[in-house]
Amino acid sequence: MDHRRDAAEAPVVAANHIWGEFDLLLADLDGVVYEGGRAIHGAVPAINHLQQSQIGIGYVTNNSSRYPETIAEQLCGFGLNAKAEEIISSAKTAVELLGTKISSGSKVLVVGGDGLKRYVAEAGFQIVATSEDRPLAVIQGFSPDVNWKDLAEASYSIQNGAIWIATNSDWTLPQERGIAPGNGTLVSAVHTAVGQFPIVAGKPEPEIFKTALRVFNPESAIFVGDRLETDVLGAKRAGISSAIVLTGIATKKDLLAASVDERPDYILDTLADLTRDYPKLRQTKRGWRCGDAEVELLGDKVLVISGDPYSTDALRAACRVIWNAEKHIHFLDVQPELYAKEKTNE
Length: 346
Prior knowledge:
By secondary structure, the chain is an alpha/beta fold. It folds into 3 domains: about 5-60 and about 205-275, Rossmann fold (3-Layer(aba) Sandwich); about 90-200, HAD superfamily/HAD-like (Rossmann fold, 3-Layer(aba) Sandwich); about 285-340, no CATH class. Helices cover about 30% and strands about 20% of the residues. Helix 9 (about 250-255) links the parallel strand 14 and strand 15 (about 265-270). Helix 5 packs across helix 6. The longest helix has 12 residues, at about 90-100. The radius of gyration is 21 Å and the shape is globular.
């Protein structure tokens, strides 16, 4: 079944639950379900509600540093009913890709956490720690314990001809204290040394989504993430509908300026919006209306004509106005309240 939607024709949905169309929720973890060791407000009750409504739940993450059992245990600690087999990590897909490049038993240099090492070992590869062991491949994933020596050994191995696979290329990682460097920064360090790019297993490449679809075999799935350049783009490449939440990396300004391939089908404040009515978008004479918010394009100005300009409904309407405008957003004068981080107290 083709899950793809034309990016230029985002759906105008009636005011009903999104789940009239989908029987599987695939959710990112960092920035969507939790940030660091803290559950994001509204995420846990929303997922529990969907499970009770017989909606399948899967978790698709670019984080490859931990065991699936460890992630499931953390989710259960938040009050979710999660199982290890429901965790689809980029480590799983990366090792599947590795198996298409070299034979079982081959030497592999692993840069990353215990979760990635376990997948590599269980697939029958021999893990080595130095380039002097002449590995046939380097597989690189995120771990807070990765150091210069690890990156250097990876660089030496790649220069000696080893295949290079990265679990993901995320530049950043949401944490309780703020945004931290992600695996992409570590991959970039190796790239600078070796002058080539890795094969990437995780989002935005479609392979990790294909892995999830094979595992769950849904009639129709939706993926919810917090990044346009990985989550939404990856879902579109895999032919899966997408939604973005504003609890992680993506900002309102990012959404307003999103390129065609990075425009989600749905815009949500949090996962809790999945259990509420999704408002209908209606085209007006000079713009779009969503709920109580109406946004128009008047000359080069994108203005909120009615409703709360700070609201998500206003953002949804403004996105539709800008995405359908003949001019690029850089040539438009967008009302600042539409992309403000929070409402100011006057």
